[in-house]
From TrEMBL:
Record-linked InterPro entries: La_dom_prot (IPR045180), La_HTH (IPR006630), LARP7_La (IPR034946), LARP7_RRM1 (IPR034887), Lupus_La (IPR002344), Nucleotide-bd_a/b_plait_sf (IPR012677), RBD_domain_sf (IPR035979), RRM_dom (IPR000504)
Primary location: nucleus
One of the record's GO molecular function terms: RNA binding
UniProt cross-references to CDD domains, sorted A to Z: LARP_7, RRM1_LARP7
Sections of the chain in a coiled coil: none
Renumbered residue ranges of the record's region Disordered: 1-29, 186-221
Name of the gene: LARP7
PROSITE patterns for this protein: HTH_LA, RRM
HTH La-type RNA-binding domain segment(s): 26-120
Annotated protein name in UniProt: La-related protein 7
Domain RRM span(s) in chain numbering: 123-186
Length: 221
């Protein structure tokens, strides 16, 4: 009887562990699906597509605006998430930006790309003194406190691939960009001592809102 009772307990423990593993697996898959949608919605979103000449050309080459999902798999950021085209298709069924074709092998924007906004420069903030290991996620997390970040450009050195220490952050509205500038020029007292809250600013020197074009002109001078 004791042996039989022990076997039942062991079986129950194994069943519980199995359910836990299955739950973890479902959670991981759910997160990957969400990350895929977020990445593709960004790529095909207005802010990125106006600047991404390669992807725009791929779309324009297509007669009906569709591009093959295999193109997405060739991008490094997608490779880090998955190389499974079927999983990508499954994720994109919930996309607000793109739609699948009937076969589920190609995608296109739900709405045509309009003209490039004229106020893009006014919605873009130049930020410097960033951490050496800065990435898009860090900037989005930090500046998301000011509004909806729609595009981030982090220049890197060609020789090493390291970030140059500054970035351009584009917001959805001019008001959000103005709020970001206010935080940069007048950060909370604790900000410089708390990495990840807000970047340090140059002492007694305000950080201006420069457009990408203006910054390039400044460098040439």
């Amino acid at each position: 009887m004791e042996a039989e009772s022990g076997n039942k307990e062991k079986a129950m423990e194994e069943s519980i562990e199995k359910k836990k593993e299955e739950k973890k697996k479902r959670s991981r898959v759910k997160q990957v699906l969400a990350d895929i949608v977020k990445q593709v919605d960004f790529w095909f979103g207005d802010a990125n597509l106006h600047k991404d000449r390669f992807l725009r050309e791929q779309i324009e080459k297509s007669r009906d605006g569709y591009v093959d999902i295999s193109l997405l798999v060739s991008f490094n950021k997608m490779k880090k998430l998955t190389t499974d085209g079927k999983l990508i298709a499954r994720a994109l069924k919930s996309s607000a930006v793109v739609e699948l074709d009937l076969e589920g092998t190609r995608i296109r924007r739900k709405k045509p790309l309009g003209e490039r906004p004229k106020d893009e420069d006014e919605r873009t903030v130049y930020v410097e003194l960033l951490p050496k290991n800065v990435n898009h996620s860090w900037i989005e997390r930090v500046f998301g406190k000011c509004g909806n970040v729609v595009y981030i450009s982090i220049p890197h050195y060609k020789s090493t691939g390291d970030p140059k220490g500054f970035a351009f952050v584009e917001f959805e509205t001019k008001e959000q960009a103005a709020k970001a500038i206010e935080f940069l020029n007048n950060p909370p007292e604790e900000a410089p001592r708390k990495p990840g809250v807000f970047p340090n600013t140059v002492k007694n020197k305000p950080i201006p809102a420069l457009s990408v074009t203006e910054e390039k002109k400044k460098k040439k001078k």
